[in-house]
Each structure stands twice: as structure tokens, then as C-alpha cells.
Amino acid sequence: MRIRTFDDYQQAYQQSVEDPEAFWAGVAQEFQWRKPWTKTLQWNFTEPNIKWFVGGKLNITENCLDRHLAERGDQPAIIWEPNDPHEAGVTLTYRMLHDQVCRMANVLKRNGVGKGDRVCVYMPMVPELAIAVLACARIGAIHSVVFGGFSAQSIADRINDAQCRLVITADGAYRGNKEIPLKSVVDDALIGCPSVEKVIVMTRTRTPVAMLKGRDVWMEQELKQVTADCPAEEMDAEDVLFILYTSGSTGKPKGVVHTCGGYMVYAAYTFENVFQYEPGQVHFCTADIGWITGHSYIVYGPLACGATSLLFEGVPTYPDAGRFWDIVDKHQVNILYTAPTAIRSLMGFGLDKVENHDLSSLKVLGSVGEPINAEAWHWYDDHIGKNRCPIVDTWWQTETGGMLISPIAGVTKTKPTYATLPLPGVQPMLVDENGKEIEGNGVSGNLCMKFPWPGILRTTWGDHERCRQTYFSTYPGLYFTGDGCLRDEDGYYRITGRVDDVLNVSGHRIGTAEVENAINMHTGVVESAVVGYPHDIKGQGIYAYVIADAMPADHDADLTKRDILATVSRVIGPIAKPDKIQFVSGLPKTRSGKIMRRILRKIAEGDTSNLGDTTTLLDPAVVDEIKAGAV
Ligand code: WTA
């Protein structure tokens, strides 16, 4: 099944299209199933209803842990690099990780969690986070990991939507020179979360925390009460493995649902092939486990393949901008998988931070999360890969579970800024606004998929209709990605960015509507409109046009802006704070009351020469005012 040459790729691709069921059955049989499946695939994209490996029984942790014990029990499964380079790290072998996952699973059981219960995980990037996730999977509980940068309000929304029974957190987290009081944020969240019965608190920063009797327990004390014997729960291939909340163009974030069988097969298959992973290699994915990239390519994909996965607690610029290279050197990293925003920010610090490190262990470089610009691509290639490591620009989404369009390292000829070709099993299609297929090469359109792959989302938690509407109704019969895409003369794909109202700020997905709602919660704000604009490091910055109760006088404007930022931080989290705020007296609206975002985007981009047709505006004069006041 392993692709080694471009011929292999072409053959695999062809089979995956001609006989997808046989293709994926072949891949899936390499895993450990308690009971084989009876039907490889059942699907339609209208309801939608997608099932892979129907009737198959398994537990993903048996595949990620138990299965490896005989052959590589003493090989490192997780290498943990702490925030502070002077603190001792931790290396967990497969045997140790198995042991700890079983213990944590028993702690969960002791605290009333069973199969199908939802568990919210709000943790620093420490081994216990991966352990918590796997412990849930061990007993069939559904994890919902919330990134440690989200606010109490965001946690509460996610906990309530999924009706979580238990929260796993830590006293605090270290990120660079900051200390984040995680438990205190959770306490604020839980004021509005009646479904939560228990909170398990890990000690990390020794920050004083409130511990409520009957609700809060210390992880370390709980672990003393259990054994390492925890048989894995038998799961159906289509039982839910996890929920991960992600932003869309409307309303609150949705809980994307992935299931046990298909997700496992897809995460592992793409990990092994795209990175051309070889046994014994060290894989360093710099994402946080709070995002899908961390789920699929720190935890499940690498462990399902028996790889060594490096987990880094800190940030790329602490204690200085050489930290990634320091880690690569220290742990002899073979595969480095990071985001363009990190590359761009490190580029700015110059080459001295790179040159004093030995990067010769690197074999493959990966990029994910946003379009990579040519300059960043070449810097990565020249200075990190020294022109000897293939770069895989992997395009995918929370909803896709794993990479869909990506080069296969050393196999697919790369082209800067191109995600290149669809992986086996992936059938992309470009369509115009009316849903008509755009055929041929040298074209661009909206990116859709016409056939399911095992890692595709199954539903959005608690609201299947929302899943249908968001992804399967824009173009009937197709999965719509929300991305724009061009296919060049060679048939290579290049993702050009979102075509909906979703921003991509430093590789983080944020809905404009979400930010607007947060801004509108500020007491002095009447209305707002948020758009993205090109940002040198973040990829996209957030530009907010705000109508205030009373137009703030110059000396107050700055304070009001800061209050708005504080409000957004409080409602969503610091990652959603606008980079620019402009107070306006009105917004460009059509006679039917629709905001013309096209105009606002142009102004935010600093391109006011050609604003297109403004004759349908209710009050065209407002455009001149906005142009004049642009920040
Ligand atoms: C964008 C992250 C260009 C895209 C795995 C997508 C990319 C959104 C790339 C999903 C890439 C991700 N090139 N754009 N290689 N990878 N994107 O759900 O707009 O956090 O729709 O998943 O990121 O973001 P998400």
C-alpha cells in the first residue's frame, strides 16, 4: 500500500477512483480490528449519510498503543519538549504511554465517565494532554479539546453544546514568557455549565487555584488510586471518536464530528505516505493539539504508524527565534510540520538564529493551515531544508480529518505555493457560482469534492441539518470546502483562500460573524462589520469597521478601541482581536440592508481606486467617508 514512486501514486490514485471500496479496504486491513467490517462504504451527499467500514469493530488506542508493544514497546512514542529549554523534558516509550493512558482511562471511569459521554479537554501542550485524549478514546468517551487560548465564554459554549460531563484541565499553562491561569478560566466557564459534574486538574504551574469540594479533583491524586489495567472498549467503526469545534461563516462554531474507523485509517494513511515516514524517525508537528492538525498529526496519525511524535509546549520565539531549530538539532528531528505564519515570523529574525544549529537530520518539511507565499516557501526550502528536503504543502480542513491535496514527499514534483495533486481517494472538482463544473486545466473556481474519503466529517454535533446546509447544500451532490482554488496547466492545485466569510489569521480559522458578535457586545457599539486584509506575518489581519453610539472624540477613540479589544478577548479569546479598528458613521448597505463586504474588503486592503459598482447602495456617501478614514 505504501507509495514510493510517482508510478505507485498514479496507480494508487487510479484504483482509488475506479474501485474506492477495494482501495480503502486494502488500506484498512493493515490495522487491528476486533471484528471485520461487512460493507466498506455506504454514502450519499444529500442527507448526507456517510459510513465507512460498516459493522467493523475496533478501538483506536489498540491500534495506536497495544499493537506496537511487542515490536517497539521501548521506542519513544512521545518526546516532550517543555516551554523552558532548561526544564527537563520527558520521553514516553510506547510501553510507558500505554501504561499512562490506561491509568488515566481508569481515572475517567472512577469519575463517572463512560462510553459516549463527552469530555472537554482544556490543557497546556504537555504529555498529559495526549494522554487525556487517548484515555477518552480508550473507554469510548468522546473528547472535545478546546485550544488553551480560548476564553471562558468560548469554553462554556462548547461544553454546553456537547453537554460535557467532565473537564480535564491544569492549574495553568506556560507559553513563552506568559503564564495562563487555565483552571481559573475553566471556573469562570463552569458558572454557566450545569452538565459538568467533575473537573480533573493537573499540576503544571503551581498557580493557586480554587478546588471545589465534590467537583474538582487533582489528577496526580486520582492516578494513585488506579491500576494500569484497562481493557479497551470495543467501538463501532462509526461510533464518535471526537468533536472539534471550528468556525464557519455564520453563528457560533460548529462541533465537527469524526468517527473511529475512517478517521484512524485516513490519518494514518496520509501521515505515512505524505511524509514518507520511515520507522524510527522523529516527527515534529508544531501545531497545538487544540486544532485538527494536532489531533491528526501529533496524536493519532503518528501513533497509529508507531512513529515518535514530538510535542512542544512553547512558542517559536521563546526564549528566542531559534527555538524550533534548537529542538530540531537537540532531538534530531526528521520531519518538521509547521505553518506559514511561523515561517514568516521566523524569517524576520534573520539567519543568525538558524545558522548555529545542525539541521542535517531533517528529511521532509511540511506546511499547513494557510496558503504559503513564494517567499516563505523558498526561505523554508533554502535555509531550513538546504534544498535537500521536499516541502509538502498540505491542504486540508478540520472537516476533512486529514490531508486531501498535497505532494507526497520526494514522489510528487513540488511547485512553490501549490498543494499540487489530490491524494489517493480524493476527487476534487472546481465549480462556478452556479455549481457548474469547470473542466480542463488553467482554470479556477470553488473547490468541492465529489466522493467521500474515510476521514470526512460525519455530522456537526447535535445539528445534522447544519452540517447538510453548510457543506452539502451550496452545490447539491458535492462537499463544498469554502475555499477558492486554481488548477494550472499541469493539473496542479493551488488553494487561493476562503471564498466565504471565514478568516484565516495566523493559520487560525475565525468567522467574521463571530468577531462582529463579540464586538457588538461592547456597550458603546451599535453595529460592526469585520473583514480580512493581507498581513505580512499573519497571512490575514482582522479589520473592523465599528459604528459607535457616539463617535468617540480623538482622545477617547484609543481607549474605546482598547475596550473593544478587551471585549473580544473576553468573548472569544485573544486570537480574535482585530488588528485595526475604524470608527464609521455608517456601513455600505444595499437597499435590502445587506452589507457590501466587497467594498469594505477593498478599503481594508488599501485599494480604493476601483470599488466597483456602488449604485445599489442606500447611501453611497458613506463610502467616501470610510475611504477617507481608513486606518
Ligand atoms: C486553509 C487546518 C492553503 C484553507 C488543517 C482551509 C490552507 C482552512 C492550507 C482549514 C494550505 C489549510 N494551503 N490553505 N496548505 N491548509 N488551509 O480547519 O482555507 O483549521 O479551508 O484546518 O485553512 O482550516 P482548519
From TrEMBL:
Residue ranges of the AMP-binding enzyme C-terminal domain?
514-594
Q: Which residues form the AMP-dependent synthetase/ligase domain?
A: 66-452
What the entry lists under InterPro entries is as follows: Ac_CoA_lig, ACAS_N, AMP-bd_C, AMP-bd_C_sf, AMP-binding_CS, AMP-dep_synth/lig_dom, ANL_N_sf
Which Pfam families does this entry report, sorted A to Z? ACAS_N (PF16177), AMP-binding (PF00501), AMP-binding_C (PF13193)
The record places domain Acetyl-coenzyme A synthetase N-terminal at 9-64
Q: Which GO terms describe its molecular function?
A: acetate-CoA ligase activity; AMP binding; ATP binding
Gene3D superfamilies cross-referenced by the UniProt entry:
3.30.300.30, N-terminal domain of ligase-like
Per UniProt, which keywords does this protein have? Acetylation, ATP-binding, Ligase, Nucleotide-binding
Q: Which GO terms describe its biological process?
A: acetyl-CoA biosynthetic process from acetate
Enzyme class of the recorded protein, top EC level: ligase
Q: Which residues cross the membrane?
A: none
Its Enzyme Commission number? 6.2.1.1
Q: Does the keyword Ligase apply?
A: yes
Which family does the UniProt entry place this protein in? Belongs to the ATP-dependent AMP-binding enzyme family.
Return the protein name. Answer: Acetate--CoA ligase
Organism placement in taxonomy: Bacteria, Pseudomonadati, Bacteroidota, Cytophagia, Cytophagales
Which gene codes for it? acs
